[in-house]
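Fold these two proteins, one after the other.
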Amino acid sequence: MERRSFLSMSAAAGASLWLCRGIGAEDANAAQWGDESKAPFVRGRGYSNLLILIELKGGNDGLNTVIPFSDPAYYTLRKNIGIRREQMIQLDERTALHPALQLLMPLWRSRQLAIVQGVGYAQPNLSHFRSIEIWDTASRADQYLRDGWLTRAFAMKPVPFDFAADGVVIGSAEMGPLANGARAIALVNRTPFVGASRLATPVPELKTAFPGGAFGSSIKTAMQVLAASDSRRMVAAGRKRMEPPWSGQGVAVIRPTLNGFDTHQNQRGQHAALLQHFAEGMMAMQAALVELGRWSDTLVMTYAEFGRRPRENESNGTDHGTVAPHFVTGARVRGGLYGVSPMLARLDGNGNLPVGVDFRHIYATVLGPWWGLDASTILQQRFESLPLLRV
């Protein structure tokens, strides 16, 4: 499928071909979900496929991240903060990346990086608190749900009993999509907790070099957690298996957070630094996942409460907006551009971009093709998955 042809959700019908087959069969289900009374747990299916969710907290400016440089309105709207043409990294005849994302280009060239443009939801709410609640619970804008969307997934189909946890949250005290019921570990200042129970901090050594800063530290911790909690894998050929510092093996989800994207003032330098930290962390994470033998069964995706307004403000920053592009990467990702390119000539009455892709289509891709779950039940509405994954 031509990536640019995927411009509306009506075109997503073909994406249903990517859904896992045969899950209804009892033996296949047992094999996938680790029911040892029927079949052993099979690596590479179900929750042996890891999800890493990276929260870009504050709302990332999509137009300066994935740049529609061929649209003259871009520079009309952004006379001061627009990225100069000679600096940006061109992806095709219309689209480029911010220069701070140069480190991601090996993933792009190997077609392991997908960019979904125009992601948001109908009747967007521009409150940080309410909008991230919508993303975390996968609710409609006028609907209030208590449980995180991942919590509902794990309630429908629990992770294998011998996993250390359903998920691990790093660098934030907020459980987000794992709220209200998931068996999750929160790592705040690198001290792990499950409820009120303290667990030993994982300290396995990895060869991968990690960047400095808070986000680099979060990525390093995430990879240490993975190495320590997954006693099935070998760190590298010929090396001894690491023993986990807590009971159990494996996790289904890891969620690190990169803070600072609420760039109302003096955005240019702040945003460049944030994207640099993001790119450095992503590439270190990819190297560590390769070292751990987990790159082939890991899906990495970004999310945030909203994007930024297309027109710069008087403080050389951007205010809360609607849609933004999001990154999806992994060895089994079908790289390229997806979704709807920014249409700067079609801003709404508030000066915001129209929604092109409901974020729950991305969640449906995780729940269905990646984990083999009934996405419609979990999301309480049918959302076709996107063709982001290789068979």
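Now the second one:
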Amino acid sequence: MARTPSNMLPLGTKAPFFKLPDTNGNTLVTLKSAKGKNGTVIMFICNHCPFVIHVNKELVAIANTYHKKGIGFIAISSNDAINYPQDGPENMAIHAKNEQYPFPYLYDESQEVAKTYDAACTPDIYVFDKDLKLVYRGQLDDSRPGNGKPVTGNDLRHALDCLLENKENSTLQKPSIGCNIKWKS
């Protein structure tokens, strides 16, 4: 397993606009249409990465909990589906259904959205406030496949609680670690 860290986009960065197809319903989704009233989580994930598979249930649990609090969730796969067909749109739709994703699962075929977010790995997680300014980027928690630490979502949950309580998140923001995004050659 490759262990690629996040690039850690600067805090305060405005969320770049996108319009991508949702593999979950064959509709086009924009940042504006999917953003939450109180904040937005954008996650770069994919179907086959062991790091994402390891945290899928917690991502779903967090989305189900915080969506009720006005946080929007958006998942994007930017992997090259030619060389990694398991990450193609049809398989994404099946995967989203099997994992019961309560959020749109968008396909970034051109990989331009991943580039504008400076995404590097899966999972790569970004939290934006209600004005779409970056307040958190990094890991879900300290758990990784095989390290024996439980998946808790503590880092992301803390960031979302700080956002909702209008408190500064003074906790060290650690990069996510995962498989590299499978870039086209």
